[in-house]
TrEMBL record:
Gene3D superfamilies xrefs: HAD superfamily/HAD-like, Putative phosphatase, domain 2
N-terminal signal peptide: none
Cofactors: Mg(2+)
Keyword tags: Carbohydrate metabolism, Isomerase, Magnesium, Metal-binding, Phosphoprotein
Domain of life: Bacteria
Protein name: Beta-phosphoglucomutase
Gene Ontology MF: a single term: beta-phosphoglucomutase activity
EC number(s) given by UniProt: 5.4.2.6
Organism the protein comes from: Exiguobacterium indicum
CDD domains: HAD_BPGM
Catalytic activity: beta-D-glucose 1-phosphate = beta-D-glucose 6-phosphate
Lipoprotein found in the keyword field: no
Length: 216
């Protein structure tokens, strides 16, 4: 293995909560209640597809033009950006900084493959831009997860064959994208949820090079 490629939300930092709050607020405006269980189906999915899923939930998928949908997605993002404006290095998930440093010292290339268009901004606020050799986000891909494009682009940018990459994700769609890219999949979460992952850690504190490599 030559490279590790990370998702952002739920792996590097828990900004997923802010996505939930922003979508919940938009849902309330549209008269579509969104609970945490439904929000799980939005994790790792693009903003556009998330909106489509919410509109289908409320049987309102045919109520808006493409332009109106774009405005709704922009409204959600504006709310999200305001919520994450105060994110700092204190919001990095436990063990992640140590793991990134360990990978750098061991000579691995490090990339990010995020479904968020705000990945650069969030990573900068976390003080982690220096830790990644390349960041691919939703603004630079055509197809969202579970399509493998974002992971394949990250591997290409790192000049590493996908089969020599390890992807780290917390969402079902993300794990599916990693597998579709031909990479080794490390899940962060519950084994009974991330069933397609090669290995699963319930806590980011358990992410160490030894713990990963001994399970490949």
């Amino acid at each position: 293995m030559k490279a590790f490629i990370f998702d952002l939300d739920g792996v590097i930092t828990d900004s997923a909560e802010y996505h939930y709050l922003a979508w919940k607020a938009l849902g309330e405006d549209l008269g579509i209640p969104i609970d945490r269980e439904f929000n799980e189906t939005l994790k790792g999915v693009s903003r556009t597809e998330s909106l489509e899923r919410i509109l289908r939930l409320g049987h309102r998928e045919n109520d808006f033009s493409l332009e109106e949908k774009e405005k709704l997605a922009t409204k959600k993002n504006s709310h999200y950006v305001s919520l994450i404006a105060k994110i700092t290095s204190a919001d990095i998930l436990p063990g992640i900084e140590t793991f990134l440093s360990e990978l750098r010292e061991a000579g691995y290339k490090i990339g990010m493959a995020s479904a968020s268009k705000n990945a650069q901004m969030v990573t900068r606020q976390l003080g982690l831009l220096h830790a990644f050799d390349h960041i691919v986000d939703a603004a630079t891909v055509m197809d969202s997860k579970p399509h493998p494009e974002v992971f394949l682009k990250a591997a290409e940018a790192l000049a590493v064959d996908p089969k020599d990459c390890i992807g780290v994700e917390d969402a079902v769609a993300g794990i599916e994208a990693i597998r579709a890219a031909g990479m080794f999949a490390v899940g962060i979460g519950e084994r009974n949820v991330l069933i397609e992952a090669d290995i699963v850690f319930t806590d980011t504190r358990d992410l160490t090079l030894e713990n990963v490599l001994t399970r490949i």
